Amino acid sequence: MIAEETLVNELKQKESQARAFEVLVNTYKERLYWHIRRIVLSHDDADDVLQNTFIKVYRNIENFKGDSKLYSWMYRIATNESLTFLKQKSKKLGVSDEELKMKMVENLESDVYFEGSEIQLKLQKAMAALPDKQKLVFTMKYYQEMKYDEISEVLETSVGALKASYHLAVKKIETYLKGD
């Protein structure tokens, strides 16, 4: 694995950019895909958002200052791209964000790429009812096992606020699961 600082430098050099970008994509595509997939739920949509994420990374690598980890910066781009995608999709379909989230969960049952059990489907429904920030924090902490300081870097929020969001998300999910 190439050191992050070296990778960033190579991404910024015209002569090494193509090879460095290939390394970047191969290193991060799976983790970013699953992060995006947990937000947009659909495999096809996740592929589209992932592609848009890498295009943004490629076009904006010159603006990367190194104040955070490259991984955190890309996660922030992937998160923003995912949320923008969902907003555009709900607008295009003429439904509210909440209606879109519930429709997406219903579509999971017929998604050939979803291999979840009944309880996982219930968890997805519970998560769809959460506000975006709570869902993001829950997803990053629960599924991706990220530490609060890493999530803080990605979402640019204090650790205290993240802990509160996670706690509220867990309580709401528990309440939802008990009610069904």
SSE order and pairing:
Layout: H1 4-12, H2 14-40, H3 43-60, H4 70-93, H5 97-108, H6 118-128, H7 132-143, H8 148-155, H9 159-179
Helix pairs in contact: 1-2, 2-3, 2-4, 3-4, 4-8, 5-6, 6-9, 7-9
The radius of gyration over CA amounts to 17 Å
- Unreliable stretches covering 5 or more consecutive residues: none
Number of strands: 0
Report, as a whole number of angstroms, the end-to-end distance: 46 Å
Q: In what range is the share of β-strand residues?
A: under 5%
From the helix content, strand content and strand pairing, which structural class follows?
Answer: mainly alpha
Provide the succession of SSEs.
HHHHHHHHH
Main sheet attributes: strand count, strand direction, barrel closure: none
Separate helix tally? 9
Overall pLDDT level: 87
Shape descriptor reads globular
Please give the share of residues in helix. over 70%
What features would you highlight for this structure?
mainly alpha; globular
Textual characterization of the structure:
It is a single chain. It contains nine helices and no strands. By secondary structure, it is mainly α. Helix 2 (14-40) crosses helix 4 and helix 4 packs across helix 8. The termini are far apart. The relative contact order is 0.10.
Quick description:
The chain is mainly α and 180 residues long.
